[in-house]
Design brief:
The chain has 248 residues and is an alpha/beta fold. 26% of the residues are buried. The longest helix has 39 residues. It is 51% helix and 10% strand. The chain has a four-stranded parallel sheet, sandwiched between helices. It is globular, with a radius of gyration of 22 Å.
């Protein structure tokens, strides 16, 4: 005996064959929106849990591919066990795009390798400030002086400024390389965007869900890149309040 309702079969070449709820019209409308602009774009598919967001995204994915779009699918919940979803998103992007043939004067693999290297620099974390300043670089607490703590704080501030400048440079290079990939995978005859589909965000831990949205906002605001994110806005609001307080 099966307790779960079987999933709707989404056929790659005919995604709407079992579309009894007539999702086709919404999918086609969303496809037209995605293909109509080269500006950075984020679209949310908002509905409570269990309302069929995943089925809708599967139909959208197949329909986009059938209409010449390049798509990366990312299940946010599957990476919920790691600290930084950026690692998982980078990995999934590389795995799903590297199957495409190289276009232009540089191979796609080289572009993806650059993206990964810039991503590593962005992910790299500094030693916590509290530890660095509190210990002032020594272990003997009796050796602490006002001067040693001030020197440690000054060194840390200088390191943080340098780290910020390096991260800023890496983010800029990361965006440029992603944009280059989005352009090269289509060639000269198409202005379609590279589309990222993110699912299961409302099943994630609050810090993970918010971090995914921060990544999209701060790192992927890029021409020729679009995101479609399935979420439950009410549940997401609870996640934000959990992190930042009830006044948000």
């Amino acid at each position: 005996m099966k307790l779960r309702i079987p999933e709707i079969e989404i056929l790659p070449d005919d995604p709407f064959r079992n579309d009894n709820l007539e999702r086709k019209y919404a999918v086609e409308g969303l496809t037209n929106i995605l293909g109509s602009t080269t500006d950075p774009l984020v679209i949310s598919v908002n509905a409570p849990w269990g309302y069929g967001k995943t089925t809708f995204l599967k139909m959208l994915h197949a329909h986009l591919l059938n209409n010449g779009f390049k798509v990366v699918r990312f299940n946010a919940w599957e990476s919920d066990y790691i600290d930084d979803p950026f690692v998982a998103l980078l990995t999934d992007t590389e795995e799903q795009l590297k199957v495409l043939k190289s276009v232009g004067d540089k191979s796609l693999q080289n572009k993806l390798e650059k993206v990964k290297n810039y991503g590593k620099k962005i992910i790299k974390t500094a030693v916590p400030a509290a530890v660095r300043v509190a210990t002032a670089g020594v272990l003997d607490l009796n050796e602490f002086t006002e001067e040693s703590i001030a020197d440690a704080a000054e060194r840390f501030a200088s390191e943080q400024i340098n780290a910020y400048l390096e991260a800023k440079k890496s983010i800029s290079s990361f965006r440029e390389e992603i944009k280059s990939i989005a352009e090269s995978i289509y060639g000269q005859q198409s202005m379609l965007p590279l589309v990222f589909i993110i699912d299961e965000l409302d099943r994630c831990r609050p810090p993970h869900a918010v971090r995914v949205l921060e990544i999209v906002k701060h790192l992927f605001s890029i021409d020729r890149v679009a995101f479609v994110i399935a979420l439950d806005a009410e549940q997401l609001a609870h996640s934000i309040r959990t992190l930042y307080g009830q006044g948000m």
